[in-house]
Write a sequence for this structure.
């Protein structure tokens, strides 16, 4: 059984849980310890005790530890990617790619630890100097989701450690294996005891304790909108710093002047790869009427050529849905769409393969109205809705007509429309002639409206959340 990592030691939990491969339900991935209130308390005490001294630690030591972590992840990306695909259901290529990204993130923040900036300013009063510095916030509770089980923990843990914070990581119960593997690497990095702690377990025990405990100075959460709202409410009661990344219902606008091949590639990649289980997925395809029919036919043809199957098998394009609950949700929305009058062009069927798993053919709905539930609510599966637009202005209005604002895309050969869309799309990230899903690790990640709250993640902008600013005055 894989144990918890608390205060520099591997310890047992209050219970245990086993995880299964969504591509083959007969395959048990492993058994993992699950923290109870006692173990969570130990983690908080350890992180709190370590925070002060680590916050004052030498930045080269932090950089060296993070660089070592990143190097080992990269050296083991095949192994870690295989574990990820076996545990979460991404194709092997996607799993290896995600593991490599996690390694690159740690190496990036190893260098950011050496670039913590400040300012030295003249005071408006004579004979006084002003120093503005960044300091760690203290203890950071990290609550990670299941859909990117190593990349998202990496892009939260790495900056937290780089900027001198102590960390308690709570991975999703569904996919603890990648977080455990990451913790095992971090455990050998030379970081002091208590600086990094892994507390696997249910949200109602581990997550709730992190949100409510006054010794936890900041919470970084990625997950559902409903859970994010509860995290924000709980943390706000004690004025903790909060960073939320939540849902998306992202539009991809396709104008009549678009290169059809580019648009189809962007739509299929963005909407259906990773089984559509990405908050950045292109779930609303908004297409000008002049090319609507051709676009729908071309996307359907591309989907028909994709192979849905075991994530570890060669040639698989789309792996399984992560678990039975998510599969039921996907199938439920497919029935909702049918009942609303949308036309099912292709897919939407439970598939049988050589192994028992949660396989679903990607579903494409056409003739959708923007007010239909399936076109407004996040499904988080391989389901996309095609909506007709009269012209660019109508398409832009449809794109912005959502409670979410994570990412938005446009396919066009017009510099005029591309430039206008980048400025007027109400989203935190905008893509031109690219899938809405797929971002770089060294630049900011985050959205607007109901998708995000607080400072941006990733890149040098991560300092805004993981540090606090201090202003010091000195008389000459």
């Amino acid at each position: 059984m894989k144990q918890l990592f608390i205060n520099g030691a591997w310890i047992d939990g209050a219970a245990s849980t086993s995880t299964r491969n969504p591509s083959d339900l007969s395959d048990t991935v492993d058994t993992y310890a699950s923290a109870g209130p006692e173990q969570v308390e130990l983690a908080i005490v350890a992180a709190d005790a370590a925070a002060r001294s680590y916050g004052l630690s030498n930045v080269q030591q932090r950089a060296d530890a993070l660089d070592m972590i990143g190097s080992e992840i990269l050296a083991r990306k095949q192994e870690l990617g295989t574990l990820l695909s076996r545990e979460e259901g991404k194709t092997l290529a996607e799993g290896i790619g995600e593991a490599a990204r996690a390694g690159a993130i740690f190496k990036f923040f190893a260098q950011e630890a050496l670039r913590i900036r400040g300012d030295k300013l003249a005071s408006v009063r004579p004979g006084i100097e002003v120093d503005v510095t960044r300091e760690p916030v203290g203890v950071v509770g990290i609550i990670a989701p299941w859909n990117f089980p190593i990349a998202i923990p990496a892009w939260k843990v790495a900056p937290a450690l780089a900027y001198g914070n102590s960390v308690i990581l709570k991975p999703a119960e569904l996919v603890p294996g990648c977080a455990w593997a990451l913790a095992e690497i971090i455990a050998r990095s030379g970081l002091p005891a208590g600086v990094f702690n892994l507390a696997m377990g249910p949200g109602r025990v581990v997550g709730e304790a992190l949100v409510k405990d006054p010794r936890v100075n900041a919470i970084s959460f990625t997950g559902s909108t409903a859970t994010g709202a509860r995290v924000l409410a709980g943390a706000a009661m004690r004025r903790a710093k909060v960073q939320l990344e939540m849902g998306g219902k992202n539009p991809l606008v396709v104008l009549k002047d678009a290169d059809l091949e580019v648009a189809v590639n962007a739509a299929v990649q963005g909407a259906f790869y990773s089984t559509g289980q990405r908050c950045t997925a292109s779930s609303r395809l908004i297409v000008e009427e002049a090319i609507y029919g051709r676009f729908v036919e071309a996307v359907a043809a591309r989907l028909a050529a994709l192979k849905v199957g075991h994530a570890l098998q060669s040639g698989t394009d789309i792996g399984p849905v992560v678990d039975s609950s998510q599969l039921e949700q996907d199938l439920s929305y497919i029935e909702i769409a049918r009942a609303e009058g949308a036309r099912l062009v292709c897919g939407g069927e439970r598939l049988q393969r050589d192994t028992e798993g949660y396989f679903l053919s990607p579903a494409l709905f056409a003739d959708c109205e923007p007010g239909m539930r399936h076109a407004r609510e996040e499904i988080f599966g391989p389901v996309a809705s095609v909506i007709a637009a009269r012209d660019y202005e109508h398409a832009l209005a449809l794109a912005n007509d959502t409670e979410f604002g994570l990412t938005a895309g446009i396919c066009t050969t017009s510099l005029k429309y591309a430039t206008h869309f980048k400025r007027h799309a109400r989203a935190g990230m905008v893509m031109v002639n690219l899938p809405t899903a797929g971002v770089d690790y060294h630049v900011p990640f985050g959205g607007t409206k109901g998708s995000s709250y607080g400072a941006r993640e990733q890149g040098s902008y991560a300092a805004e959340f993981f540090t606090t600013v201090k202003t010091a005055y000195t008389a000459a």
About this structure: The radius of gyration is 23 Å. Residues 4-246+451-475 form a domain with the Aldehyde Dehydrogenase; Chain A, domain 1 fold (CATH 3.40.605.10). The chain has 14 helices and 24 strands.
